[in-house]
Amino acid sequence: MSNREPGTEPIAEAQPPTELAPAIPLEEVGRIAERVQELIAAGNEAAAWQRLRQLHPADVGLILAGLPRTSSEALLQIMSPQTVTWMLQHMNPVEASRLGARLGLQTLSFVLDQVHPRHALTALQRLPIRQAQKVAEQLDQPIAGSELLSQDPNTAGALMSDRFVAVDSDAGIPELRAGLAELEDDRNRLTYLYVLDAQGLPEAQISMVDLALADADAIASSIATPLTAVVSVDTSAQECARLRRHYNLTQLPVVEGNALIGVVLPDALLGVTVEEDTRQMLQVANVPGERADGPMALSIRTRLPWLTINLATTFLAAATISLFESTLTQLVVLAAFLPVVAGQGGIGGTQTLTLIVRAIALGELVGIRAKRLLVREATLGVIHGIWLGLLVAVIAIIWQGNYGLALVLGFAMLGNMLIAGTVGAGVPLLMRRVGIDPAVASAVVVTTFTDVFGFLLFLGIAQAAISLLV
Question: What is the span of the domain harbouring residue 191?
Fold first, then answer.
């Protein structure tokens, strides 16, 4: 399929199965992926597809997105557009975006032009909003509901679906069930129906369980429960993720003005939560937006600037060491212990930094004073420093037989672990206070502090006590 031009006849040899397969362990998916690649390498794409069609579409898409490009293109050549759409419809948004990136703009637009518009829209909503917008622009015929794709990226409007059920408070149970039946396949994605007030805004919700158990003569208001949260169309995706996580929500109603215009469904909520958690993790490592199988150019653009900045900070550490050349000349073995002190401080600072950045992202620090956190992490640094200092001192005595060196190492380790805990907590808290995303640059600052001060402490104490060491 990947080599076809729009307007050509699709190859419809590989059709999707009529029923969804059950879930299987990830290890089994990996073994099947290896077998599929072997079959493709042997030129037996048909047998590879027969093995894949026994799996859940989410597993098929995961395997397809992870195969070498030549292997995935060989499989795509025998797949019908219905099959590709079937995979996208049943994948979570994160994995769907990986598969969408592998397919490319031209192939995706060709595929979605061949299938039912409702299925095409569902597939588009699994993709990142910018990618979905580009694909929609390439379609030969507009899709009903595709105006959802014009919403600002990373907002509730971009995440929402316009397929939902909302009724007045006096609506009967038959009306609710009829509205649900009209949604056809989309009804399986809903967890709640909504009750509107006189202004047309949602005031309560009805779970599927309550609807199923309700008496036929009941009305909507009698089985409804209060809403936990409502978001506007321009609410950020990050806030939607926070609401989902904090209040354990499965669905969010979206309003604009005085009207309910959509709902953020469970799969979209899960997808944005995973994306937000992943974004925070990758930013701490200074590789935001990168994927393991992503474009080489993106990896270079993402990593090289931070590696260059880190190179500058290492020269700062090197300059610190150069201040103590005479001390190192008198006792060369000090150089062997430099990475021990600095390395442990770097690890301790990164541990604290990761914990604090995650807590900030999840909103866990509301009501917790910065001073309390700093004291806690400094205390942990002292405890860790005492243990590690004793340990490294014992090693120095066994290795070098130098009790003075052991004493210097112990105090330097204690001091650097104290600095690591304090700086690891203080830097992200300070960045948050001045309005900078703590995940962006905290790691470089923390490692620079622990390296420089680790060297200063160790070599400074050694210089002051050189008479005890030589």
Answer: 166-281
